Amino acid sequence: MENTRLNRAIETLKSTGVRMTPQRYAILEYLLSTMGHPTADAIYKALENKFPNMSVATVYNNLRVFKEAGLVRELTYGDSSSRFDANMNDHYHIICRDCGKIVDFDYPPLFNVEKEAAEKTGFRVETHRMEIYGVCSACQEAKAI
Fold first, then answer.
1. How confident is the model at residue 100 (pLDDT cuts 50, 70, 90)?
2. How far, CA to CA in Å, does 92 sit from each of 48, 135, 136?
3. What is the pLDDT, as a whole number, of residue 131?
4. Which residues are annotated as a binding site for Fe cation?
5. Where does Fe cation bind (predicted)?
6. Quick one: 100 exposed, middle or buried, by C-beta within 10 A (0-12, 13-18, 19+)?
7. Where would I find the H helices in the chain?
8. What is the pLDDT, as a whole number, of residue 78?
9. pLDDT band at 81 (very low <50, low <70, confident <90, very high)
10. Binding residues for Zn(2+)
11. Residue 1: pLDDT over 60
12. In this structure, are 27 and 96 located in the same domain?
């Protein structure tokens, strides 16, 4: 993982008055090092051996702090648990309908769609989200067996 991303994230938190605890550091480091889009429970399970006294509530509270500081996005798809993404660059997601795996998908941002929506509706557009659904290669292979 790129230490500069972690250091920038820590500086961002400190500049907003957030104190860095060992748990907070570990959660942030985990989020920045994973290419997945973990749930709070998955983060908790990944770190519980290192921090046996940490609760799932601690993970949720820290994710909220990171979200408010603009360091993570909360992804909500359907009825499943929220997932968290530390990639704050413009990108989209492709989601497996079978296993729920989420993969980043780079594509030029659809700013023209936002502009068109604003012009046609009179809304002040703040953001948009595009999701692509399908079946990942691992699930396809499992079904073929």
1. confident
2. 30, 16, 16
3. 86
4. 128
5. 128
6. middle
7. 3-15, 22-33, 40-47, 56-68, 111-121, 137-144
8. 65
9. confident
10. 96, 99, 136, 139
11. no
12. no
Record the tokens describing residue 2, joined without a space.
């790129």
**Residues flagged as binding site:** 96, 99, 128, 136, 139
> Are 100 and 127 part of one and the same domain?
yes
Same-domain status, 113 and 136: yes
Residue 109 clears pLDDT 90, i.e. is over it: no
Q: Which of 74, 70, 61 is nearest to 15 (CA)?
A: 70
| Torsional class of 87: left (φ above 0), alpha (ψ -120 to 50), beta (otherwise) | beta
- Please answer whether residues 74 and 82 qualify as being in contact, where contact means their C-beta atoms are separated by less than 8 angstroms: yes
Q: If you search the block for the tokens 């595009």, which residue do you land on?
A: 130
- How crowded is residue 44: how many other Cβ atoms within 10 Å of its Cβ? 19
Do 46 and 65 share a domain, yes or no? yes
Residue 103 belongs to domain spanning = 92-144
In this structure, the answer to whether residues 78 and 118 fall within a common structural domain is: no
Residues in CB range of 69: below 8 A, 6 or more apart: 12, 13, 16, 18
53 shares its domain with 79: yes
- Number of structural domains found in the chain: 2
